[in-house]
Design goal:
The protein is an alpha+beta fold. It is built from 9 helices and 4 strands; from the N terminus they run ααβαααββααβαα.
Length: about 220
C-alpha cells in the first residue's frame, strides 16, 4: 500500500499555518494539567521538628558546647542513636534513616531534628524519639565531655502538609510547559513570505575558460 505524500504533509503544513501563540498556549495547558495531576496523585507529606541544645557545665565553656552541638548533629542519624529511637517511634531503623534529617547552626549550640511522614502524628513521634535518644547518648558521656544535651523544644503534630499543593505543582507545570512551547516556537521553521529564491547562475566551462584567457 503506497503512502499518500499529501496526507503525510498535512500535519506539518497545519502546524506552520497555526498562529505562534497556540504553541505557547498548548504548552501551558499541557504542563498545567500534568503538574496538577502529579500534585493530586502524590500523597501529602508532613514535617515536624524538635530542637535540642548543648549546655556547658561548670568545667566547660560555650565554645566547647558549640563544637559538641555540631558533632551531635552528625551523630543523630547514626545507627547507635536510631536503634534506640525506633523503640519510642514504633518504626524500623530504615524508616528513620530515610525520614529524619538534622541541621546545626554555626552560631548557636543547637541541633534541629526534622522528620517527614505521610502521617502528621508519626512525623512528630519520630522527631521526638530521635531527640530523646540523642539526648540520652550525649548525657551518658557528659562527665567526660563536660557538655550536657537538653531538650529545647519538642516537635508538635503539624496541622498542614509541607508538600506542595496541586495548585502549586500545576503552576510549576504550566510555567515549564510555556517555556518548552517557547523553545519549540524559536526552533521551528519559519514561513517564507516571497516566492522560492532562484540559485545564483554558475558560469559554464566555456565561459570560465574564456574569462581566464582574457586575464
Amino acid at each position: 500500500m503506497t503512502e499518500n505524500p499529501t496526507a503525510s504533509r498535512r500535519p506539518a503544513a497545519l502546524a506552520r499555518t497555526l498562529p505562534p501563540w497556540t504553541l505557547l498556549a498548548a504548552g501551558v495547558l499541557a504542563g498545567g494539567l500534568l503538574g496538577g495531576g502529579y500534585g493530586i496523585a502524590k500523597p501529602a507529606t508532613y514535617t515536624a521538628t524538635s530542637y535540642v541544645v548543648a549546655v556547658p557545665t561548670a568545667k566547660s565553656d560555650p565554645a566547647s558546647a558549640l563544637g559538641f552541638a555540631q558533632a551531635y548533629g552528625r551523630v543523630a542519624t547514626q545507627l547507635a542513636v536510631l536503634g534506640d529511637a525506633q523503640v519510642w517511634a514504633g518504626v524500623p531503623v530504615k524508616t528513620l534513616q530515610s525520614s529524619v534529617q538534622t541541621a546545626t547552626s554555626p552560631d548557636a549550640p543547637m541541633v534541629a531534628i526534622t522528620a517527614t511522614s505521610a502521617r502528621p502524628d508519626l512525623a512528630a513521634d519520630m522527631a521526638n524519639a530521635v531527640s530523646r535518644a540523642l539526648t540520652r547518648h550525649a548525657n551518658d558521656t557528659k562527665d567526660d565531655t563536660h557538655v550536657e544535651l537538653q531538650s529545647f523544644a519538642r516537635a508538635t503534630k503539624p496541622t498542614a502538609p509541607s508538600s506542595a499543593s496541586p495548585a502549586v505543582t500545576g503552576l510549576v507545570g504550566a510555567s515549564a510547559g510555556g517555556l518548552l512551547g517557547g523553545l519549540v516556537l524559536l526552533v521551528r521553521p519559519r514561513r517564507t513570505t516571497g516566492g522560492t529564491a532562484r540559485p545564483a547562475p554558475v558560469p559554464g566551462p566555456a565561459v570560465a575558460a574564456e574569462a581566464h584567457g582574457q586575464l
